């Protein structure tokens, strides 16, 4: 029973009715027309996260078996360990981004992406199980995890509430085509052309440069109003 003199809290239906008029009727069109810069920033932010992830989780299997003659199961075990550790660190990086901002945490992950790429493939070439597991764990946690944790909040906060879902989705999905979708093919093409770990690491570093530039060009969003 509501207290006399106090308005009851609105239920979900009332909230939807109040906000329905604020939603964009053609959100994709409005995003492209009014937020082209934010779309490009969202795309750039995802290049290192998405592209490097598929290099670290998919292409490394091809590299290990075809280039380094390493047992596939050994690399799979390293990926499993790295992913498990990353699962525990993502909430920590997310909480850190709430405290210090999205950009510093995201920049840390992008820089680490460029730094861990060559040591990762050098560890695979060494054939040492310990170094392979450690390198993959570093790649998943310090590189991918640090970017993935604040990514959803960072990309969403680039756009106004009325087009937030469409804007973040558009930037993310366009980046997945050019970054993650092409990454394993680019890596395989480099191997087929006779190039080794240096060329692959340079490609990953290039993805990281795109993301670093996008994060630097963006504004800090952690303290902005969500509406």
Summarize the structure in words.
The protein has 227 residues and is mainly α. The protein has one domain: Up-down Bundle (Growth Hormone, Chain: A), CATH 1.20.1250.20. Helices cover 78% and strands 0% of the residues. The chain contains nine helices and no strands. Helix 3 runs parallel beside helix 5 (102-126), helix 4 (72-100) packs antiparallel against helix 5 (102-126) and helix 5 (102-126) packs antiparallel against helix 6. It is globular and about 55 Å long. 41% of the residues are buried. Mean pLDDT is 87; it is low at 1-21.
CA(first)-CA(last) distance: 31 Å
| Biggest sheet layout | none
Give the overall shape, derived from the CA principal axes: globular
- Count of strand segments: 0
User: What is the domain total for the residues?
Assistant: 1
Question: Could you give a quick summary of the protein structure above?
Answer:
By secondary structure, this protein is mainly alpha-helical. The protein is 78% helix and 0% strand.
Keywords:
227 residues, Growth Hormone, Chain: A, 9 helices, disordered N terminus
Layout of helices and strands:
Elements: H1 12-20, H2 27-34, H3 36-67, H4 72-100, H5 102-126, H6 129-156, H7 164-178, H8 183-192, H9 197-217
Helix pairs in contact: 3-4, 3-5, 3-6, 3-7, 3-8, 3-9, 4-5, 4-6, 5-6, 5-9
């Amino acid at each position: 029973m509501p207290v006399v003199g106090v308005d009851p809290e609105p239920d979900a239906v009332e909230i939807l009715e109040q906000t329905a008029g604020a939603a964009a009727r053609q959100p994709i069109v409005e995003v492209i027309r009014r937020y082209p810069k934010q779309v490009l920033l969202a795309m750039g932010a995802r290049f290192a996260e998405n592209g490097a992830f598929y290099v670290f989780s998919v292409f490394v299997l091809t590299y290990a078996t075809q280039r380094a003659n390493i047992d596939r199961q050994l690399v799979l075990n390293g990926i499993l360990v790295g992913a498990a550790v990353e699962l525990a660190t993502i909430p920590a990086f997310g909480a850190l981004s709430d405290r210090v901002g999205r950009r510093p945490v995201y920049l840390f992950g992008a820089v680490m992406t460029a730094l861990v790429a060559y040591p990762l493939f050098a560890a695979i070439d060494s054939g040492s199980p310990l170094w392979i597991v450690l390198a993959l764990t570093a790649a998943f946690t310090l590189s991918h995890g640090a970017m993935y944790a604040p990514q959803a909040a960072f990309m969403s906060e680039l756009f106004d509430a009325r087009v937030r879902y469409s804007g973040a989705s558009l930037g993310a999905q366009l980046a997945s085509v050019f970054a993650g979708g092409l990454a394993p093919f680019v890596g395989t093409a480099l191997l087929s052309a006779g190039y080794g770990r240096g060329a692959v690491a340079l490609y990953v570093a290039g993805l990281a440069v795109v993301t670093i530039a996008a994060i630097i060009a963006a504004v800090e969003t952690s303290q902005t109003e969500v509406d």
